[in-house]
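thought: user wants a sequence for this fold. calling inverse folding tool.
action: design(structure=
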C-alpha cells in the first residue's frame, strides 16, 4: 500500500514498513528498543 503513495524502491519500502511495525509493537520511539522489535538480525 505504501508503494501507491511513495515512489521508492522495494528495499526502502520494506525497511519503512518493518520499522513502522516494530514501532507499533514496542510502543516507543527509543531506537534501541525498536531494534529489538525487528524480526531480523538487527543489533541494538
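)
observation: tool returned 44 residues.
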Amino acid at each position: 500500500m505504501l508503494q501507491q503513495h511513495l515512489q521508492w524502491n522495494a528495499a526502502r519500502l520494506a525497511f519503512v514498513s518493518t520499522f513502522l511495525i516494530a514501532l507499533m509493537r514496542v510502543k516507543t520511539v527509543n531506537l534501541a528498543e525498536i531494534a529489538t522489535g525487528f524480526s531480523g538480525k538487527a543489533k541494538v
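thought: summarizing for user.
answer: Here is the designed sequence. The helical segments are 2-5, 10-26, 31-37.
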